[in-house]
Design brief:
By secondary structure, the protein is of the alpha+beta class. The protein is built from 7 helices and 8 strands, in the order βββββαααβββαααα.
């Protein structure tokens, strides 16, 4: 079996047996993989404490069916700026847990790898504003093919251009025209316009969500993600708890 090097972002780590660790990582070349790092809890030489959530590493692995064998790791960055702040840790953990839960195993997705890496890079140098989390979410859903319909009615298929108000239904798969959206959550044209603009730029920090738009976008994105999950995200519960403890924190509205 041949050892391969792959640039990866650690999505999750858990202890296994007495000395091993089970690692879920998102590899640029091979997609999401799960592996076992034998002796990682004891060996500083091969892994050097690098196997931590959202670290970006060059991993030496032996690819195989089932659990990949992890031979060693070289640190590219552990994103030290993120690790100094609970809100940033929460946002980074959320992005990685979302990727872990929704990515299929063994399917390369370089575009999504770049999106996740760009979000972590942004968090490494900037506060965790809710606008940036929403920017990440709409692009994440778009890359995976789960983006809610924004250009046409998810009910009847009618084009929505020029309308001032819409309805939204996660079960239907997106926005609804006035005819189909009776009783659905209302959404303004400003919110739809901003979400569409988020899909046309790949740069974090370029979009600013006004409070009323941020609230509507949050409703759309939370529901669109929740319907894809079999159980709630632990990291989202942590962010909600942190938001309640820090009313003026950037996790609220940036």
């Amino acid at each position: 079996m041949r050892t391969t090097e792959c640039e990866s972002i650690i999505l999750g780590v858990m202890d296994y047996r007495e000395a091993d660790r089970l690692v879920t990582f998102f590899c640029h070349e091979h997609g999401k993989l799960r592996g076992v790092a034998r002796g990682a809890k004891r060996s500083r030489q091969r892994f050097g404490g690098a196997l931590e959530p959202f670290a970006r590493l060059c991993l030496q692995v032996v690819l195989k069916e089932g659990l990949t064998q992890m031979q060693g790791a070289d640190i590219i960055t552990i994103y030290p700026g993120i690790r100094t702040d609970l809100a940033r840790i929460g946002c980074a953990g959320y992005a990685c847990e979302l990727a872990d839960r929704l990515l299929p195993e063994g399917v390369a997705n370089p575009r999504l790898f770049r999106l996740l890496a760009a979000f972590l890079e942004f968090l490494d140098h900037s506060p965790c504003a809710e606008s940036e989390r929403r920017f990440f979410e709409i692009n994440f859903l778009n890359v995976l093919g789960y983006r809610p319909a924004l250009d046409y009615c998810a009910g009847c298929g009618a084009e929505l251009a020029g309308m001032e108000r819409y309805g939204f239904s996660a079960a239907a798969g997106g926005l609804l025209c006035p005819h189909c959206g009776t009783g659905a959550n209302p959404v303004s044209a400003a919110t739809v316009d901003l979400l569409q603009r988020c899909l046309k730029t790949g740069r974090f920090g370029a979009m600013d969500f006004p409070p009323e738009v941020l609230a509507e976008a949050g409703t759309i994105l939370d529901a669109s993600i929740a319907i894809l999950l079999s159980r709630p995200l632990n990291s989202l519960a942590f962010l909600s708890e942190l938001k309640g403890q820090m009313p003026d924190s950037s996790v609220q509205n940036g």
